[in-house]
Each structure stands twice: as C-alpha cells, then as structure tokens.
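quick one, 665 residues, struct below
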Amino acid sequence: MSSTATAVRKMMRSAAATVLTRHATTQTLVRDCVYARSWRRRASTTSSSTRNVAIIAHVDHGKTTLLDQLIRSTSEARVEERAMDNMQLEKERGITIAAKYTAVSYKNATLHIVDTPGHADFGGEVERALELVDGALLVVDPFEGVMTQTKFVVRKALQKGLKPLVVLNKVDRDGVTRALCDAVESDLFDLFAAMGADDAQLDFTVVYASARAGVASTSLEEAQKQIVEGSGSVDAILQGILDHVPAPRGCTQQPFALLVSMIERDPFFGRLVTGRVFDGALGIGDTLKVLTLGDGVVRETVRVQKIFTSRNLERVAVKEAKAGDIVTIAAGFGDATVADTLCSPERREPLPSTPVDPPTLSMTFGVNTSSLAGKEGNQLTERQIEERLRAEADTDVSLRVSDSSDEDGIPGLQVSGRGELHLGIIIEKLRREGFELSVSPPRVIQGIDDEGCRTEPFENVLLECDANDCGGVIDAVTQRKGDLLDMDTNAGEDGRTRLTFYVPSRGLIGFRQEFINATRGNGVMQRAFDSYGPSRGAIGKAKKGKLISTTSGVTTTYSLGALEPRGTLFVGPASEVYAGMIIGEHTRENDLEVNPTKEKKLTNMRASGNDETIRLTPPKVIDLESAIGYVGTDELIEVTPKAIRLRKAELASSMRRRASRQADS
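---
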C-alpha cells in the first residue's frame, strides 16, 4: 500500500463514526459486531500457532485459483486445478457451490483455510463459514473493484468482528497501475466505513498478487517485477495470515463446546457435523449433548466415534481436538443441524450464532404427472422426492422445505432458496440421481412490515454492456420496477458501461435471457440480495404465447414444417410429445393449440412432380436455467434425467378453456 493511501485512511478514520450514524441498517450491524467482538476478546489458552481464515470474494475474482496456489506452496503433493471444488457440478460450471475447509502448515503453524462460494445465491454457505474463522482474505480484482457480492461478504465479515486482509488479485493484467489500485483501496475503505468498521478494521493490510502466476507481495511494483521474471511465491499472503489474523480464542480447561457450521452425510458413519471448537478438548469415546440455538434445549445425546480433520485436501482421523481446531465429528447423530452447539454434559448454555438470511424465492416440487412419466427415471414417488429434499435441506443452510400451499395448482413440497441458480442446482442434483418431478414457476417470498404493509426482497444488480446497448438495457430494467443507482461509462479494461440498479427480485425472474438477447451475449450480469422493501405492485413483462400440442405421439417433419411460420419450435422431428406439452413459442401473445404429429396422407395416385424437400430450422434448446426464467404462471417444468420439457399445469384442453372462461367472468 502506498504511503499516500495510508495517510488518507488515517485522516478518514475520524469520519467513520459519522458515516456509521447515517447508514440505514447500522444499528443492527453494530449490535452484531459488538456481540461478536466481545466473544472474541475472551482469554485464550489455545495454541498461538493456529490460524483460522476464510477466503471471500466476488465470483470470478480468482479466489479458487489463489487457494490452489496456497496449498501448492505448503505441500509437496500434486495439487490439481480447482482442487477444493470436488463436486461434479462445481467442476462443470466453474463455480464454488459449497464451503469446504482444509489445513496447511507454514513456519510450524497450522492454517485452517475455508473456501467459500463467490455467487450470491450461495451466500448462506459464506455466512456459516465465517462462524469457523477469526479472519478473512478478501480477494478483489482491481479492474472490477467493489462488486455486489464483495459488499455482501464484507458486511457479513464485519458483523462477525473479523479484520479482512485484502488481496488485490490479477495484478499481472495489462493496465493495473498504482493509481488503479489506490482507487480500489479507497473504495474498499469507504465501504468498510459505511458498514460500521472500527479503527482496526479500517487499517487493513493489502497484498498484491497474481494467483495464476503464483506471486504475491506487499508491494505492487515488486509483485509485477516477480511476475515478469517468473520468480516469487505466495508467502506474502501466508505471512500476512500469521501476522494479521489473531489466534483462536478459547480455553482448553473449560467444558467442551463446538458450534456446528456444516452438515454432511457419510455412507458408513451417517450424519457428520463440522465446526470449530470454541472451548475445551474432545477425545474419542466422549459423551456429548446437542443444544439447540437460543433456548438450549437438549436435542440428543451422543458418543464420539471418530474425529476427522482435513490436511492438504485429505481427510485424516485424529485422536483428539482442542479449542481453536476445525474438525468433523462422527457420533451417530440423528437430528443435529447447523447452528446447534455440541458440548459436554455439564454445559448448559449454547454458543451464540448469527441467523442466516432468509430465502427469497420458492418453487413447488411435485410428482411428474405427464403422459411420459416413468419412462426415463426411477425415482418417481412423492415420498422419495420428499426424503431427498429434506436430506438436502439438512446440509444446505439456505434451503427450506415445507408442505405446499397448493398455490400453483399442483400438490407437492414448497422449496425455498436464495435465487434461481440455487434452486436450479437442487433440481439438477435430483435429475442426475434419477428423479422425475414437476416444478412450478418461481415466486418471491413476500413479507409484512411492522406497519402491516407488504414487503418484497430487493437486489443490487450490476450490468456491464456496450454503450450502444445501454438504452435498451435501462429501459428493460425500469419496466421491471428497477431504479438506476449509478452509471460508469468507462468501466473495466474494455471500456464498457457499468450500470448499477436496485431491483425487486420479482422483476429479475427471467431477465437474464432478455439481457443476453439485448446485448447479443456480450453483457455481464451480477446480482446480490440487499434487503426487503415496500412492494412495488404489478410488473408488466412482454409475453408471447405458446404452441401447445393437442395430441400424444411422435413429431413429424411434415407437421413441424407447417408450424415453423407460427413461431419458434422447441422440439425436432421424431420427438415424443403429449397433449398439453409446450412445443414452441408463438409469434403472437395468445396460446395456439397445434398438432405436431400429423403425417402427410398417401394416395395411390402418382404425383406429377416431386415433393419439395422440407428443411427445418434447428429447434431452440431449453435448458434448466432458461426454463426456470421462461415458464409461465399456468405452466410447469417437467424434469427427467434425460429431458427438460415445458407443459401446461392443466393438460386437458377443455379444462383450460373452462378455467379461462371462469377467470374472465
């Protein structure tokens, strides 16, 4: 960090309190921070050679690549790319979905490093991961600066009383200068001050790094020099963790207490709990009880069978755990869940835990009732679907599963999550396991404020696009009740325009595809939950009708050729369809019932000429994410291991017409 930037920070500390009083949500934030800091100021008898730290960042800022380099520099074992992303969906999509931890050794110290997701839809994993640590590495791309998820993770870290160590990553890119880095550091300082950071948090340390090159230094010039020379290491980050992240607080002489932060399932041991030991020590064979958050009711009593930790990406069994350790425990748990306290029998009070932000979006999951049900999957019944969803809710802290209120016209389970991507990942997991199900359109979860007024979730949305596309993008967002907060006409290395909006979550359903079309696939969209606010009423969206099959059978080229002028087709020749299935999008606003299985009639008369060859346009492929944003209010998504289909909730044409007449009357 330059001396000028440091001096500016010191002058601005006195203004932090003034900024704090003007912040709308500061009172709650300050209370949480004071509570967290008072807990962390307790006398410590743990080892000073242990550090617990989380890596937090906005998506695509290089967090996972940096973690790979930290593990490589402290281990002789071969570390694959994206080593911590061990789920198949994480590898395919290139994102981190679940928080995970591992331990590395550096200068005779043990560093427990927790990897967290960078996407806003998995923010619950970030919130729970921060319960495990005493510090955080905040990774920021200098070109993109402070983004939507950066604000979210910073707010959560400050609520926990953590002091972030800032890592400006990707300094090997052309155009990264001292002026650019100073501007980003100033923006981060302003963000910290606005969110109630104290003097110690405002005086954050900055490390300049290139995760791809494996270089880090406290000097920007030195880091860029090492990148050019092909030398250097990430030791500056590891040393920064030792110097600026405090050792874990706790007393090994007190009764044992562990706060559960993660749940997973093992085919042999059953339910495993992962958490940080706040007090005491634990050995195999010890008897423990599980206390619920808040009231401290004993949920169950267990005996420890195994204690595991993670070292250099490998799970290893240990004989004991002490205050400050992050461990995974197998003890035949039945009901223990996230935020519970695992403690010795003599302990009475549960450990404090910050509640996870509530879900903002819900969908109804039901049995597949189409004509093709049972042909492609082997998990079909409502009982199987419910058991799988409730098992998923045990390990996913942001997921809620409850009985459906039948608002969508289908019986089933109401599944609530943080966003379209979050719920889409859940559906994708089920279909890969052989499940067939029907899914309703997403709907936002509204609330009621103290004055009895209806509220709804709002999100901060950041859009990057070419200057020529700004007009259409702004118009599309404002039609969805969004407010334009900021407009930067020369953002990033490409000089594109960056737009920041405050938009109801309800207005963002299905917007991603519209944004892609408006920017011809060149735009970038990022979003993060902000808060609940007054409902903004009905949102008008451009709607096109659907092409609906009236018969069941196999599509023919002859019939589809006649339907092509009517709209965009979702199916090709020789595809199985059924009555009520949506096979395309109509060019007009009304739905059109069609027969895609009609064949050309044959006769005994020889034609005077040759039939024209029918050439069909390739059908539009509907994947799961686009289907979630596209499905209408009276429609369902049919999910099977082999296909994603759209259908009407009411398959019978006569029943749909009757319902339409009743609605009009």
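The two ends are 70 Å apart (CA to CA).
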